[in-house]
Design a protein that fits this description.
Structural class: alpha/beta
Low-confidence stretches: none
Mean pLDDT: 94
Order of helices and strands: EHEHEHEH
Distance between the termini: 15 Å
Strand order of the largest sheet: 3-2-1-4
Helix content: 25-40%
Shape: globular
C-alpha cells in the first residue's frame, strides 16, 4: 500500500494535465498513488495521460465522475478513494520540485 495518495481533480482534460504528470513522475519519493478525478469532463485525454503515467511507472488510479460538482467535491472523491496514510491535493496547474514529496513525508 502506498504511504501517500496524490489527488488531482481535473475537468475536460485540462491543458495542464501533462505538466502535472511530469511534475509527479519526476518525484524522488516513489511510494505514492496518483489519483486523477475527472469531474464529468471529456474522458479520452484524461485516459491518455493516465495511460502515459502508468507506462512511465507511476502507480495511477482514475475516477470518472458522472456529474460535475466542482473541484472541491472532485478532490473529496479522490480523498475518499484513498487508503494511504497521507493525502495531498495536486491541482492540475501545480508543479512541484522533484524532492517535494520526499521532504514532505
Amino acid at each position: 500500500m502506498e504511504l501517500v495518495s496524490v489527488c488531482l481533480p481535473v475537468f475536460n482534460g485540462s491543458k495542464f494535465l501533462s505538466t502535472a504528470l511530469e511534475s509527479i513522475r519526476k518525484q524522488t519519493y516513489k511510494n505514492f498513488l496518483w489519483i486523477v478525478v475527472n469531474d464529468a469532463g471529456e474522458k479520452s485525454s484524461v485516459n491518455t495521460e493516465v495511460s502515459n503515467a502508468k507506462s512511465n511507472g507511476v502507480d495511477t488510479m482514475v475516477i470518472h465522475r458522472a456529474y460535475s460538482s466542482g473541484m472541491e467535491a472532485a478532490s473529496n472523491a479522490g480523498v475518499r478513494s484513498s487508503s494511504s496514510e497521507y493525502v495531498i491535493i495536486h491541482d492540475d496547474d501545480d508543479s512541484w520540485e522533484e524532492n517535494f514529496l520526499e521532504l514532505t513525508v
